[in-house]
What does this fold into?
Amino acid sequence: MTQNKLKKVKAFAPASVANVACGFDVLGFAISGPGDFVEAEFSDTPGVTIEAILNDDGRLPLDPEQNTAGKAILALLEESGVKRGISIRIEKKMPLGSGLGSSASSAVAAVVAVNELIGNPYEKKDLLPFALQGEMVASGTPHADNISASLLGGFILVRSHNPPDVVSLPVPDKLMAVVIHPHIEINTKSTRLILRKSVPLSKAVEQWGNVGAFVAGLYSGDYGLISRSLYDDIIEPSRSILIPGFGRMKQAAMDQGALGFSISGAGPSVFALCDSKETAKKIGESAGKILEETELGYDIYISEINKEGSVVISKEEE
Amino acid sequence: MTQNKLKKVKAFAPASVANVACGFDVLGFAISGPGDFVEAEFSDTPGVTIEAILNDDGRLPLDPEQNTAGKAILALLEESGVKRGISIRIEKKMPLGSGLGSSASSAVAAVVAVNELIGNPYEKKDLLPFALQGEMVASGTPHADNISASLLGGFILVRSHNPPDVVSLPVPDKLMAVVIHPHIEINTKSTRLILRKSVPLSKAVEQWGNVGAFVAGLYSGDYGLISRSLYDDIIEPSRSILIPGFGRMKQAAMDQGALGFSISGAGPSVFALCDSKETAKKIGESAGKILEETELGYDIYISEINKEGSVVISKEEE
It folds into this structure.
């Protein structure tokens, strides 16, 4: 036990791709590179104080009740019975509103840092409900697929949202992700509104066949099966309308050998999965060329599936 | 190669449970015990002749174009280019219209027997499309979950119906099935009519989370996860109305330790999965007691998951 011996902890939580094609609201994975840092220390001020948020252009609230990281920590402290004040600094190393789980990363990094600071009363997987409560304040609906992918790393399946029941899935060795973030903003609430509230039974059956097959593909390392099941005829047709160049980027990615291509979260980011770094680079280049025809800036992240998830990166003792 | 050396082959294809809870139209498994035998031999009469059907109470058509086994063989012969006449005898060792894939078993046993007779031009898994064509004449819609479970054995997932894309899933060692067949008849077409043509998106999401988790549970041998994911809030609520004692049998099965309980196919058969023979017996007894309060007869099958599927059981050389 390290209870009460630390004075400062810094944690990192990676960006994540949710709504993975057939797995709307249930499948997510973490990527390497972008993510959020949260540094937490004990403070004489009771409750949670957010001292600073870096790289958010002043857009995120400093009130801990309204802030995803602040609210997540408050939930953790309440449940664990810790009465000491905590102050945090949030450093965003990923774009907001990009469809890469920005609020999830903040909530996860916050609870991972504070859990370590207060002596690790919880195992990593048990931090999920606190991070979910935090994310609720940002997005209204908790995205357990983003939260659990960022927390645990790898590929995750959300069997149930309430209560959360999350399954860590195996990641085949060669699996690579390409994430393309065009610099436009899509309001998540409006992308929810665009969705029909009901689905034809025949399409729903097709979708759950594909989710089951995708899970089987991950377990068996069958890239062909993974590819055939990365298909979404329910959400993607509506939401892709809002993403510039979606159809052309997808076609180009598939032509380059992508296993599949779809929307990350509610967009505007899109992702491809593939089975080699070389293919990943080609997919990124082809998407870049298409976006350069627009006046939008963009980021491209090429990454293995991040199996580690959130990590404590530094600690200072009292 | 044994081409043209055999004169008679007898094959067996087991009964199967389809629409496994969350896996409506996509998940099936084979059981041991009930099933259909088909004996096939070369004949001087061109085409396919159905000499006899035993134990069908005269209900199944002898016209090969209208008979599921006959039609499946015609499809197989056409594709393989074999011109010789074939005559068959069908022996049903399972109830018709029970929700246990009776027509699927006939179609599968037929193509397995004839494939062997004509020198095995196809591997077992490649017989699926022929059996599907046969089953089409019986039920209007092909049940690839019944057909592929009966053909291949074990647990199967139908990723896509057209073209058929079927995944064999692993079967955890302790998994046992209890199948209860109350002696009433439910017309499959009317059970299809009872289904709503669309599904609320939220329930569809829940269902595909459960299908993914069920597949993960089979791969990881996690009986708890299997149990939590054996849930169907889409089809079961409507169809179970037609099954006498459904609610009480389900409650009793869960009280005895079942992992899950739902409708087999379109009913009237129901099934439970559990993790020991002892529990299986208790589940069977509790269902029997409930059905004895009605005036219905019933059968109860207690079985491991049948991993073998269809088999050639005897051959005679020319």
Notes: Chain B has two domains: 6-170+306-317, 176-304. Chain B has a mean pLDDT of 94. Chain B touches chain A through 38 residues (CB under 8 Å).
